[in-house]
Structures are given as structure tokens and as C-alpha cells.
Amino acid sequence: MPDTKESILMTALRLFARDGYQAVSVSAIAGELGMTKGALYKHYRNKRDIFDSIVQRMYQIDAERSHKYEVPEQTHDQCPESYNDVSIERIADFTVAQFLFWTEDDFASAFRRMLTLEQYRDAEMGELYRSCLTAGPLAYLEDIFRHMVREGTLREADPRQLALAFYAPFHLLLSISDRPEDRKDALTRLQRHITDFMQQNAARKEKENEIRQK
Amino acid sequence: MPDTKESILMTALRLFARDGYQAVSVSAIAGELGMTKGALYKHYRNKRDIFDSIVQRMYQIDAERSHKYEVPEQTHDQCPESYNDVSIERIADFTVAQFLFWTEDDFASAFRRMLTLEQYRDAEMGELYRSCLTAGPLAYLEDIFRHMVREGTLREADPRQLALAFYAPFHLLLSISDRPEDRKDALTRLQRHITDFMQQNAARKEKENEIRQK
DNA sequence: TATTATAGTAAACGGTCGTTCACTTGTCAA
DNA sequence: TTGACAAGTGAACGACCGTTTACTATAATA
């Protein structure tokens, strides 16, 4: 039965996300599923194997989402009404989708909290946390914004600071939304932040015309 | 010897901040200090007592800092060159001071990481994390900004979104600065963020004059 | 100087940890 | 029908957990 292995993984993840890897016993995982701990070893070599499978799963999901969403350079695309707003719209949509992913998807939400708890244990977990939730997204957005500033889509500004100003609220609202009663409000505030940011940092029309004339 | 008790507290905190409370054994704390675990029980009733003492210590430090820094309404003060920039300057200074506190102070830095690891264990820790590092500072700044918008020091905008835009980079850079090699850069980026924010959101001179004329 | 309190050690306690193993089922192919 | 195999039980293993206890040395106090 393959969904036993799957339910072990999800149950373990849920507990790891609340208490941390070390604090969760093999008995506790088994007990949560109404079986004895001996049975777990028919599906996973040991406790660490469960953890590693969770991490591997995240890598896999991330790869799938990368293929689906963020083409490194978007190829051909039906050109909407305003050609210079296309990138901005895309980023806004993608950002909201990412937020919903990290807050509402069962796996991603628990994985993010687990990663938060494990980030100081060893260098590998620290690096994974960075690449998923702090420096990674920051660097990614910095590249995009640099491109958009060059293209004249965004106003002249340090892309590094733009990325910080744009992404930091995303990151903070992730933490805020860990409280279930604050999740809805967090999404609203994020959406307001995105529109505020885009409005404040989109290049003025005059400037666009200047650039277009060159 | 009272500094034995103190060194136990600091050593335990350092380990709790890396591995989490449950994952740190009493033997490990004692071993780090070159003594046997039995000796710890001459200074603390049990393991939880060490943890509780750490939390209590944070409350104490926070109370001291509250008295020292943030008077709820600043009383009399030598009035500098520009009366409407005073609050902005004060906030900028206080923000940097808070950042250095959470990143460079041995106790506060470790306590923040420990709190990060314990935030999902129970409601009390979650509430403490919120009040220290997320919703707490946000609400505090929201109040200040609302006041400043009313006074005409800041441009007309939702104080809630202003607080988010101002504090979120602070919060993200705290996490970034957990990597020692990124700490210096994080401070620089924070300072740029603060000046950028103040410049972007300070009320225009014309507007100030309008208000002053009323 | 005798006494008492303090800070520490070493061993032991019961309990839980992760893991293994012998054993029992149920299922399905030969 | 038989045999192989996958899934699960429950007991056992040694190791380590937090905590207690009996004991020792040191230093201050009477």
C-alpha cells in the first residue's frame, strides 16, 4: 500500500513542523497513524530517512513548479494591451501564487515551518532555508528588477533595495500568516503591498517616452 | 559563585538557539562547561527552570531597554534645526539600535534564534515571538506612523502599510544577518532602507506648508 | 578549632529513545 | 494448494534522557 508510506511522510512532516526533528519520536509518528513504530521501518530505513525523503520531495515539487511558472526568460506570449506592464503583472501574479503556496499548500506550509526550526542545526539546512526563503528569492528578484530598470519598466533605483522593499513584506507576512486567524488579513496586506510597490516604483510615463525616443 | 549560574544560563541559551530546547540535553550543557550534569541541579531546579530563567531574563532586559529608549511620548527635548524631522530621526536611530541589539548582543541574538525555534511549540512561545519580532513591532510602528501622518510629518498613507513597508526589511535582514558573513552587509542595507523610506514617505514641503497654514 | 553550607562528583533510578528481530497475518502468483 | 512476499505486531536491545541520591572537598562561620 503506497499511501501508507505517503501518510507517514506527511504525518512526520506535520510533527516536525511543530516540534522540530529531534523532538519528534518515531513512536509519536507511528502513534499518530495508529500503528506501532516497528511498522515504520518497513517503509523507511530509519528516522533520518523520513526527513531526507521530505527534503527530496520539496526539491521535486520545486522543480515542477519552476517548469510550470517561472521561465527564466519568458519566450513568446500573447502581447496584452500595455507591453511594458506585462512583466509587472506577471510578477504580481507569481508573487501571490507563491504566497498561497507557502501558506495554504499543506506540504509547503509545513515544510517552511520545519525548515524554520532546522535552519540552525547544520550548514545544509541553513543553506536550504536561505535559498528558499531569504537570500534566494531576494537574489532572484534583484535580477528581475535590474532587468526592468534597464528596460525602463521600473524607475531608476538600486535593484538590490527594490528587491528588499518588495520581498521583505512577503517574508514577514509568511510568518504573520502562521497564525491561522491572521492568514486572510496577511494575504490582503500582501496584495495591497504589491500594488503600492508597483505604483510607487513603476517608471513615470514621461520617462518611458524619453527612453523610447532614444 | 554566582557567575557559574550565569554561565550555565548563557551556555544553555547558546545551545538552545542552535538546536532547540528539546534537542539539548542537560549533559550537553554541563559538558560544554566542563562539569557533570549533577552540578547543574545545585543552581537550577530542573532543565525547564533554565529555560524559564532565560525567558525571565529577556523580560527584564526588555523592561530596562523600554525605560531607557522609548518614552511613550517624548517629553522635553532640545529642539534641533528642523522641528518636523525630529521624530523621523529618532525612529531611524532607534531602529538601528534595535537592529544592533538583536544581531550583535550575545543574549538578544541567541534569544531571538531560540524563540524562532520554539515559536510553534506552544501558544505562549508563539505569542512571545509575535510580540517581540513580528506583530508587536508592526503594531508599535503603526501607532507612531499614524501619529506622524496626522501631524503631517509623513505623507498621507495607510499607517498599517507604512509600518509593513518599514519594518519588514528590518525583520528579513535579521534573518539574513544570522549568517555571520552577511551581517555587515545587512546593516548597510538596513540603513539604506531607512533613509530611502524616510525620503519616500516624508511629507512634501508644500504639503507641510498647507497644513501649517490651516 | 569545630561546624555548617556550598559546589561538585559519580553512580544509580525509571523512562524513553531509535532500531532490530522473531513472529503473525493477508494476498497473490505458481 | 502451496510458497513467497509485503505489512504489521510486540518484545527486546543498548544508549541516553532528566532527575535524585550519597558522598567529598572546600571555604566561611561560630
- The CATH topology of the largest domain in chain A is Tetracycline Repressor, domain 2
Indicate the mean pLDDT of chain A: 90
| Protein chains sharing the most extensive interface | A-B, 39 and 39 residues
Unreliable residue runs of chain A = 72-85, 207-214
Order of helices and strands of chain A: HHHHHHHHHHH
Helix content of chain A: over 70%
Strand content of chain A: under 5%
- In this structure, how is the largest beta sheet of chain A organized? none
Distance between the termini of chain A: 66 Å
Reading off the top of the CATH hierarchy, the class of the largest domain in chain A is best stated as Mainly Alpha
CATH homologous superfamily label of the largest domain in chain A: Tetracycline Repressor, domain 2
Question: Which CATH-level-2 architecture of the largest domain in chain A?
Answer: Orthogonal Bundle
Helices of chain A, by number, come to: 11
- Helix and strand composition category of chain A: mainly alpha
Which descriptor suits the 3D outline of chain A? elongated
Query: What is the radius of gyration of chain A?
Result: 21 Å
Count of β-strands of chain A: 0
Task: List key phrases describing it.
75% helix; DNA-binding; homodimer; 2 domains; Arc Repressor Mutant, subunit A; 214 residues; mainly alpha; 11 helices; disordered C terminus; Tetracycline Repressor, domain 2; elongated
Structural write-up:
The structure is a homodimer of 214-residue chains. Chain A has 214 residues and is mainly α. The first copy, chain A, has 2 domains: 1-54, Arc Repressor Mutant, subunit A, CATH 1.10.10; 69-213, Tetracycline Repressor, domain 2 (Orthogonal Bundle), CATH 1.10.357. Helix content of chain A is 75%, strand content 0%. The interface between A and B is large, with 39 and 39 residues. Chain A binds a DNA duplex (30 and 30 nucleotides) through helix 3.
